[in-house]
Design goal:
Blueprint lengths: L8 H32 L17 H19 L12 H24 L5 H31 L5 E6 L2 H13 L5 E7 L12 E3 L4 H8 L3 E4 L7 H10 L6 E4 L11 E6 L2 E6 L7 H20 L1 H15 L4 E7 L5 E7 L6 H13 L20 H9 L6 H7 L3 E3 L6 H5 L14 E3 L1 H4 L7 H14 L2 H17 L5
Parallel strand pairs: 1-2, 1-4, 2-3, 4-5, 10-11
Antiparallel strand pairs: 6-7, 8-9
Helix pairs in contact: 1-2, 1-4, 2-3, 3-4, 8-12
């Protein structure tokens, strides 16, 4: 029997993309049929019989949308393997393709005078988009699990100075969900390469070594040796090989929507839009905070009362813990949480800080938090693992002190220790959840926590907030980093 070679990671990703497209078609058809059923209470699209109210069968509407919708998703980039499984681009593309579809439907039906039910469209759009987003999230969860086990990773050759090469090696090793694995480096420097990655040549050897190693991509970082002419020649040499060329700019922690490129006589200029702290985006964010927090307080009223009663019955102390925190632009506010520690927790703090200073606890700067804090009660431990101790902060959100998504609300003593960079965290409202919540929570060091918060402050968006909310559900369900 002839042995067949195992498909490469790129080949397996292509197979996965075909499955995702097939599932999306099923979701599209199912959402259209469901929309007709919810709107009209019957399914003439299954029989082809004309509806008496419009004079035609919705079979044709279903068939046309079942073809056009997936095509629009593809044109919007929902199946671009470069963005599959990580980042906001995939979700944005799904939303964009869906809006394109129904925007086109609105224009065509108006121009042609077709009596398509607006109720049908208003049901199909949110139902279809919601199901598609959930479907892609499930695929992403599957991909993330595979990549954590070193599967579906694209092999990358990194080219550039040692310092930047090492930074990229550590980044790809830490964020495996991005789907990259550095297998070799080309550099003229003689410094140590992180992760035992072999140096297989200089920058001039990159094209030859990339094809020899059979990598999936070449990543160029900044280098005094790698000129723009050399980078262009490398791109030419990779033409037709199927090897992607990735350019890693010198600027960091800037989200793609803030970058605008403009060519001038062959020179690529990159504009970086300033962070947004006002305007329509802030109005949408504020409205979302008010509506969601009000609805959540009503829906969770009974569970909140039950939790408060359990805390009271545990040791007789108060159910709520109040504390002064620093909000937007340095304004102080009273933050509410369910009490998870013994009533005299602050009196025991000094001794625990001395013990932590001589232990192997990670450096969290002015933030004091222990993994096995003896002050936490039995009920409190459960509340912390599930993040239910944070639920009273919904009242802070409704009052306008906090937002659903934002940096972690700091204590005044933490703010007193801030440097100039960290002070930028106060440009936006603190959040009930945020990048810190979905990126490790209490496992983060002080520097990592600040970096995540600053990235959020500089690059926040409404779509980004929705993605963080979605990711928070998983972080809470797994209790990763919660203590």
């Amino acid at each position: 029997m002839e042995d067949h070679p195992r498909p490469s990671s790129r080949g397996r990703i292509r197979q996965l993309l075909r499955r995702i497209r097939a599932v999306d078609v099923v979701i599209v058809v199912a959402s259209l049929v469901l929309s007709e059923l919810l709107r009209f209470g019957s399914l003439t699209s299954l029989t082809g019989e004309p509806r008496p109210d419009v004079g035609f069968s919705y079979l044709w509407v279903t068939l046309v949308l079942a073809v056009v919708w997936p095509v629009m998703l593809r044109l919007a980039g929902a199946y671009d393997g470069r963005f599959l499984g990580f980042g906001a681009q995939e979700y944005t593309a799904v939303a964009k393709g869906t809006l394109w579809t129904f925007g086109g439907v609105a224009v065509v039906t108006y121009a042609a005078g077709l009596p398509i039910s607006r109720g049908y469209v208003l049901v199909a759009l949110p139902v279809g988009m919601g199901l598609l987003l959930v479907g892609h999230w499930l695929w992403r969860s599957r991909m993330a699990a595979l990549r954590r086990n070193d599967r579906l990773l694209l092999d990358v050759l990194v080219v550039g100075e040692v310092g930047r090469v090492n930074q990229l090696i550590r980044t790809f090793g830490k964020v495996k969900a991005a789907g990259f694995r550095v297998v070799a480096a080309c550099t003229s420097d003689r410094g140590h390469i992180a992760g035992d990655v072999p140096v297989v040549g200089t920058e001039a050897d990159a094209a030859e070594m990339a094809q020899s190693l059979g990598v999936d991509a070449v990543a160029i970082t900044s280098s005094t040796v790698m000129s723009s002419v050399a980078a262009r020649r490398l791109a030419w040499a990779l033409e037709g090989t199927g090897i992607d060329l990735i350019v890693v700019p010198g600027i960091h922690d800037v989200a793609a929507p803030r970058l605008i490129t403009r060519p001038v006589d062959g020179v690529m200029l990159m504009y970086v839009d300033p962070p947004t702290f006002h305007g329509w985006k802030l109005l949408v964010k504020t409205a979302m905070d008010i509506v969601l927090s009000a609805v959540a307080l009503v829906v969770l009223a009974v569970p909140l009362l039950v939790i408060g009663l359990l805390i009271r019955l545990g040791d007789g102390g108060p159910a709520l813990f109040t504390q002064q925190r620093v909000g937007r632009e340095g304004r102080l506010f009273t933050m509410y949480k369910f009490r998870t520690m013994v009533s005299n927790a602050e009196e025991l703090r000094a001794e625990l800080e001395r013990q932590a200073a001589s232990s192997d606890e990670p450096d969290r700067g002015p933030l004091f938090k222990l993994k096995d804090d003896p002050r936490i009660t039995k009920v409190g431990r459960v509340l912390r693992r599930t993040s239910m101790d944070e639920l009273p902060q919904l009242w802070n959100i409704l009052r306008g002190d906090m937002s659903i998504v934002g940096p972690r609300p700091p204590l005044p003593r933490e703010v007193a220790a801030y440097d100039t960079d960290a002070m930028r965290r106060l440009l936006v409202k603190p959040g009930l959840t945020g990048l810190w919540q979905v990126s490790g929570r209490s496992n983060l060091t002080w520097e990592e926590s600040i970096r995540h918060d600053l990235y959020y402050v500089e690059n926040w968006s409404v779509m980004g907030d929705l993605i963080i909310m979605f990711r928070t559900v998983r972080a809470v369900a797994t209790s990763h980093g919660a203590y």
